[in-house]
């Protein structure tokens, strides 16, 4: 194989790796929730367990992947602004007082997050945009939907 071909293949793999690392997240909601959009400040409050109920009285739960997983780096930066260890401690503290209805639920996969949101009135979840199904509603964050220019949860 020629040297230029090897370089071309190497650059191709590096490009794929960069694209794979750049996740775009969506905030999805249970279909019974009467919420269409949240501001970034509201999402931060939900993520920290500081929002207990929606306007219609349903208890709020955020469903997400393990904050220690590499896929969640963007969420840690944009929503929490702290280390994964601090987020784990924050989740524990937020759930401490809400035994029957946890503020934050951690799941093993995006598919599990979507299924949990589908089955939990009041729930919202953070998932990779490619995990979205018809069983959930995609919410605007900061007035934008995923993949729109300026969307807050767009990966770089």
Short description:
The protein has 156 residues and is an alpha/beta fold.
User: Count the strands?
Assistant: 6
Number of domains: 1
Low-confidence stretches: 6-21
β-sheet strand percentage: 15-25%
Biggest sheet features: 6 strands, mixed
- Would you tell me which CATH topology applies? D-Maltodextrin-Binding Protein, domain 2
Q: Which of globular, elongated, flat, extended, rod-shaped describes the shape?
A: globular
The CATH class: Alpha Beta
CATH superfamily: Periplasmic binding protein-like II
CATH architecture: 3-Layer(aba) Sandwich
Numbering strands along the chain, what is their spatial order in the largest sheet? 2-6-1-5-3-4
Mean pLDDT: 87
Q: How do the helices and strands follow one another from N- to C-terminus? A: HEEHEHHEHEE
3D structure, described in words:
- This protein is of the alpha/beta class and 156 residues long.
- The chain is built from five helices and six strands.
- The chain has helices spanning 3-21, 40-47, 73-80, 84-96, 110-118; strands spanning 25-30, 37-38, 61-65, 104-107, 123-128, 136-141.
- The protein has a six-stranded mixed sheet with strand order 2-6-1-5-3-4.
- The radius of gyration is 17 Å and the shape is globular.
């Amino acid at each position: 194989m020629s040297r230029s071909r090897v370089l071309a293949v190497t650059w191709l793999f590096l490009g794929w790796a960069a694209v794979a690392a750049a996740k775009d997240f969506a905030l999805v909601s249970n279909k019974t929730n009467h919420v269409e959009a949240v501001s970034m400040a509201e999402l931060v409050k939900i993520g920290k367990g500081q929002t207990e109920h929606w306007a219609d009285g349903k208890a709020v739960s955020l469903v997400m992947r393990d904050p220690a997983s590499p896929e969640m780096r963007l969420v840690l930066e944009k929503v929490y602004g702290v280390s994964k260890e601090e987020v784990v401690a924050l989740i524990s503290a937020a759930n401490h007082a809400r035994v029957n209805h946890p503020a934050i639920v951690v799941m093993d996969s995006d598919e599990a997050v979507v299924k949990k949101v589908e089955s939990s009135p009041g729930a919202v979840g953070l998932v990779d945009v490619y995990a979205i199904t018809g069983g959930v509603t995609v919410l605007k964050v900061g007035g934008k939907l995923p993949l729109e220019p300026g969307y807050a949860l767009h990966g770089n």
